[in-house]
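1st attempt posting a full record on here, be nice pls
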Amino acid sequence: MVPRQIPARCSGPLDRRTWLKVGGLSLGALCAGISPSLAQTLAARADADFSVILFWANGGPSHLDTFDLKPGAPAEIRGEFRPIRTNVLGIDICEHMPKLSRLADKFTIVRSLHHERGEHSGGTHRFLTGHSSLQANLPNSENPEVGAIVAKHLEHSLPSPLGGEGPGVRGGVPRFVGDTQFYGAGPAYLGRAYAPFMVNPNNPISASGNNIYDPIPIFPTDDGRAGAVQLASDSTLRLHYRANLLDHVDSFRRQAERSGSMETWDRHHRRAVEILSSSRTRDAFDLAKEPTLIRQRYGDTLWGKSLLTCRRLVEAGSRFVQCQATYRLPQSVGRTSNWDDHSVNAHIFDAYRLKLPVLDHAMSALIEDLYARGLDRRVLFIFCGEFGRTPRLNNPDPSGRPGRDHWPRAMSVFLAGGGLRMGQVIGATNPRGEYPTQRPLDSNSLLATIYRRFGIDLSEHLHDQTGRPIPILPRGEVIRELVVG
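the predicted structure (as tokens):
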């Protein structure tokens, strides 16, 4: 049997008027076609507004010190924190997250996810693509990450750009947005057209294994001008106003026509440039348009402003927004900006005493906001990293400070909203947090659940650059406890 595949065809050159109608677009995506079948369009309607906010704790947060504490374990396992009760009987979380403890009816914790890859990029690739990479420490993905798959799917399941909606955009807003490329993730063989739109220039260090780079905002910060939005792909151009967009488009076309390369440009799916410039996008990134009380509730922190931006983006029409949960620690506590909490990198408990209250404040604000706006029915918020941390503490750093190492055998994932069943804990680990003892779930189960909500058929295949068919997800079943109905 020939495997099913996502169709692809080039619709031919676009004139200047079409460029303007699209407003913001993914050029490679444009060539995938502007006439999706009626069946595809109708299939998409069931989950036409579903969106995901992925707050990615790159480095791997400790499940034992956040959402799966083990107060009865020996000191070298349980650490320094204690659990507190939440407003849902039987759900306990870390004492440094009191605001979230009052919202447990609005979130679910999956404590039994696991996979087999213990390297940062290998673990990220495994978690976000569902495939185990051949390379261990890979900067770029071998298979498309979840956001790229979603972007690919949506271009075939939404109306034509000539009808007001362009592949890669929804009402002028990019469907896939991120702050930077993740280490071990990316669009892979789908191409740069399916990379996330990034408002600030992409920092290549974020995909290098370097874990001490400064946090990269998902909101505009470069020149302080309200609504300043930069180009996403490869960060080669900057567009502040629609007049700039027209100038860039006209200039590019004139150069291409003079050089005789216009046909090549069309044939290669317009990969030379991606343009996104619309008032709706600028407004979504402009936090000054948010009421003061809302901005104060989220907090004047990187995480607060990041999650508020994420909410504004999905409300405006973005469908998958991913953002690193990086945090600049003082030198006295650690040298990393991520969650790679080895002893040589940071004092894990002093780091968490700083990070968790900020996380608690920002995440609780987002969850309350999603529910207050009715977005909880269609927006799924996820907080997790590529794996958990070792149950046993170690302190090889000369200072003797405590830390935990990589641990993919058990991890906790925090979920809120998405029209899924909240107010529960799914799965459990043994008394030392070493491995699942109840409802063990391959990490692909989370991807399968997300894909189902987007209406993505897991029996479909993609084709790599050699034409080889590759399943979207090689295995993984929907987490039945999350699905309503």
